[in-house]
Known about the structure:
Blueprint: H1 8-25, E1 42-45, H2 52-67, E2 71-74, H3 81-93, E3 98-101, H4 110-119, E4 121-125, E5 137-139, H5 142-156, E6 161-167, H6 173-186, E7 191-198, H7 203-216, E8 220-225, H8 230-240, E9 248-252, H9 256-263, E10 269-272, H10 275-291, H11 293-299, E11 305-307, E12 311-313, H12 318-329
Parallel strand pairs: 1-2, 1-3, 3-4, 4-5, 5-11, 6-7, 6-8, 8-9, 9-10
Antiparallel strand pairs: 10-12
Helix pairs in contact: 2-10, 3-4, 5-6, 7-8, 8-9, 10-11
Amino acid sequence: MYGMGLGRQGRLAAGLLAVVLAAGCQGGGSGTGGEAAKVQKLAFVTNNTSEFWKIAGNGVKKYELEGKVQVDIKMPPNGKTEEQNQILENLVSQGYDAIAVSVIAPKDQVGALNRVAEKARLITFDSDAAASKRLLYVGTINYEAGKELGKRIVELLPKGGKMAVFVGFFSADNAAERLRGIEDAIAGKGIEIVEKREDQTDRAKARSNVEDILNARRDVTLVCGLWSYNGPAIAAALEGTGKKGKVLAAVFDEEDGTLKGIKDGTIAGTVVQHPFEMGYRSAKWMHELATDFEKAKARIPADGIENTGVEVVDAKTIDDFEKRLAEWKK
């Protein structure tokens, strides 16, 4: 779990104190019929340990302070499906009231997610599992985000060309939807995806995959990364193979290596999400669903999605974006 200001015990103590005070104000005390409010157990489960989640964690922290609650952040150390499933199983066995999860493999995890939904209020963020019994998805509409990056790729390759795509797992909902959006945006534009490589969230492999393609296929004119750490891996591979300025790069998210790559001309552009909002809104929804389920459920959008939006960052807009990013990282 990231450092979240107050320590776990400190935040829990603060939450308990707030509950006691609230109960006193409502006439609980020592009289008959007075009951202290239940301290909610909430958990935010990521799909890996990338830098992206530090910003989301700060969004969680903001709501913790506002809502006077504690949200435990759990991260699969190697980004593996079985690790995430074990985390979810442990949370359910420990009696957590609400759980938010960025799903690694939506199709394969429906059963595991539904078991969680039987015991806790379940929402997803960043990577959805719409076929499961989750109540709400908070995050990017990844198909639309993919279309945005696809439009930028069309601008970068006006005469067409061949490209390669890299990600941890293509089975993840966010990866699949981003790729689908890209494919639709480049259709009929003379641009062909000739290579697709997975790295299973292994950072070394993420770089070597790109290097392998750059060395083996001289016809590839653009490389694309779908997950946050793919941007820095692509930048490093382009530098290491001497292909900077010769092969273009278009990626997702705002890791430091990606932003540096935009500044030095290694990366042409990135579509950034709003992870701070994902963290903040997920924590808020969990708290509300765990506290007053019927009232919160009535507020869920009809399509079950709360869109946190995206924007394109390139050499023209990076300075403004970095100012805002610094605030989110505080």
